[in-house]
Write a structure and sequence with these properties.
about 130 residues; mainly alpha; about 5% strand; globular; disordered C terminus
Length: about 130
C-alpha cells in the first residue's frame, strides 16, 4: 500500500504540486484526510494516517530545499498548472497540522519571499505581463 501511494504521488511532477494536492485532501471541518480510493483499500484510520504522514514528509522535503530549489520547483508548478492566482491566495493553507512552529515559520518566510518575487517579477516566469 505504501509503495502504491508513493507511486501515485510521484505522478505529480513538482514537490510543491504534491504539497498542494495533499493539503487539498484534508477536510477542514473534521481535520481528517480523505481519499476515496485509499480509504476503500485500507479504511478510514489508515488512510488518514498515511495521508497525514505523506503531507508532513512532502512539507519537510519542501522546507529542506534551498530558496533557489524552491523557486525552481515553484516556477515549474506555476508553468504546469497556471495556478498563480490561487497560489498567491492559498499558500498559507498548505502547512500540515503536524508541522512544528519552527517548520511553519521557515515555510512562511520562504514562501513570502517567493511570492514577492512573483508579484514584482524577476525577469523570469513571473516577469512577463499577464495576457
Amino acid at each position: 500500500m505504501g509503495e502504491l501511494w508513493r507511486k501515485t504521488l510521484s505522478q505529480i511532477p513538482t514537490v510543491f504540486g504534491r504539497l498542494v494536492y495533499l493539503a487539498s485532501l484534508r477536510d477542514s471541518t473534521t481535520n481528517r484526510y480523505v481519499h476515496a480510493s485509499l480509504t476503500a483499500m485500507v479504511g478510514l484510520e489508515d488512510a488518514d494516517r498515511t495521508l497525514c504522514h505523506s503531507h508532513h514528509q512532502v512539507f519537510s522535503q519542501w522546507i529542506g530545499f534551498s530558496l533557489e530549489e524552491q523557486k525552481t520547483d515553484l516556477d515549474q508548478y506555476v508553468r504546469d498548472t497556471g495556478d498563480r492566482k490561487h497560489l498567491l491566495q492559498q499558500y498559507r493553507n498548505l502547512v500540515p497540522p503536524t508541522a512544528r512552529d519552527v517548520e511553519r515559520q521557515l515555510y512562511l518566510t520562504d514562501l513570502e519571499t517567493l511570492v514577492e518575487l512573483m508579484r514584482y517579477g524577476d525577469g523570469g516566469v513571473y516577469g512577463a505581463p499577464e495576457a
